[in-house]
């Protein structure tokens, strides 16, 4: 569905409302976003390696994104924006829920981080030319996946790097990410809809159709000994890079 400006709406209001209600607890590592707090270090490890590989940077640098701009789409209350800003990026975050953006601005101010936050439909915000674009656990929540990828593509610089993560659509993800995780309260009820999950080949096709080369995806797996960790096992969740072909 297009809006009055001709942009395609990708936000599902029910999804934005769901996550907006969780805004107050976003930064509580034992609250409703506890799983995101556990995921974040794993995702950051992949992001850091991808940054160093893409820009041939020094892996010992504490600010590998110095002089670069970064955009996190579906940023929630800024859980990924803040560490990326600390890596040196001039950071921008976008989210569909106004409550999340309010929480993100408040937390960034308290942390002394100059992050720019926007609320609204990505394609309507006119954001362009970012060196790094990330979108973590978001594409499974949008109304039109191809339109969302197109909107992400519009924000990326020609030589930029995009990094996406999302749950895989498998029997294991239905059992563990929805039925088990929501039943025991690790994830708030109604957070995930299994039919909206996307497989790595499906996501690769969407990205290739939008003109991207897709890197080898890595799984984010769980084991009692390692907890959440990068793995060849993509049955639950995966993360990948994309750059213009």
Distance between the termini: 28 Å
* Amount of beta strand: 15-25%
Largest sheet: 9 strands, mixed
The pLDDT mean sits at 88
Poorly predicted ranges (pLDDT <50, ≥5 residues)? 1-6
Number of strands: 9
Radius of gyration: 17 Å
How many discrete structural domains? Answer: 1
Under the CATH scheme, the architecture is 3-Layer(aba) Sandwich
Globally, the shape reads: globular
- Please, how many helices? 7
Which series of helices and strands comes N to C? Answer: HHEHEHEEHEHHEEEE
Structural class: alpha/beta
Helix content: 25-40%
CATH superfamily: Vaccinia Virus protein VP39
Q: What is the CATH topology classification name?
A: Rossmann fold
CATH C-level class: Alpha Beta
Explain the layout of strands and helices.
Blueprint (H helix, E strand, L loop, with lengths): L12 H8 L13 H22 L13 E5 L7 H6 L3 E6 L2 H14 L4 E4 L10 E7 L8 H11 E12 L3 H13 L16 H10 L2 E3 L3 E6 L3 E5 L5 E8 L1
Parallel strand pairs: 1-2, 1-4, 2-3, 4-5
Antiparallel strand pairs: 5-9, 6-9, 7-8, 7-9
Task: Give a description of the structure.
The structure is a single chain. The chain has a single domain (13-244), classed as 3-Layer(aba) Sandwich (Rossmann fold), CATH 3.40.50.150. The protein is α/β, with parallel strands linked by helices and 245 residues long. It has helices spanning 13-20, 34-55, 81-86, 98-111, 145-155, 171-183, 200-209, and strands spanning 69-73, 90-95, 116-119, 130-136, 156-167, 212-214, 218-223, 227-231, 237-244. The two termini are 28 Å apart. The relative contact order is 0.14. Strand 4, helix 5 (145-155) and strand 5 form a beta-alpha-beta unit. The radius of gyration is 17 Å and the shape is globular. Strands 1, 2, 3, 4, 5, 6, 7, 8 and 9 form a 9-stranded mixed β-sheet that branches. Residues 1-6 have low confidence and may be disordered.
């Amino acid at each position: 569905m297009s809006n009055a400006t001709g942009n395609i709406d990708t936000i599902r209001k029910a999804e934005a409302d769901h996550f907006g209600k969780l805004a107050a607890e976003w930064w509580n590592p034992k609250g409703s976003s506890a799983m995101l707090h556990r995921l974040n270090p794993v995702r950051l490890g992949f992001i850091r390696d991808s940054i160093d590989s893409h820009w041939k940077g020094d892996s010992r640098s504490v600010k590998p994104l110095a002089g670069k701009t970064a955009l996190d789409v579906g940023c929630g209350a800024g859980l990924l924006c803040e560490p990326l800003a600390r890596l040196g990026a001039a950071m921008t975050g976008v989210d569909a829920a106004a409550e999340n953006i309010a929480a993100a601005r408040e937390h960034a101010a308290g942390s002394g981080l100059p992050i720019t936050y926007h609320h609204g439909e990505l394609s309507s915000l006119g954001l362009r030319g970012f060196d790094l674009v990330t979108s973590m656990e978001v594409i499974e929540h949008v109304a039109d996946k191809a339109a969302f990828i197109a909107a992400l593509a519009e924000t990326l610089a020609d030589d930029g790097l995009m990094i996406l993560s999302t749950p895989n659509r498998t029997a294991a993800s239905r059992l563990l990410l929805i039925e088990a995780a929501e039943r025991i309260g690790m994830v708030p009820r109604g957070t995930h809809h299994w039919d909206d999950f996307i497989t790595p080949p499906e996501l690769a096709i969407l990205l290739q159709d939008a003109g991207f080369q897709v890197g080898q995806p890595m799984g984010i797996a769980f084991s009692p000994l390692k907890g959440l960790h990068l793995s060849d096992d993509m049955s639950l969740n995966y993360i990948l890079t994309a750059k213009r072909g």
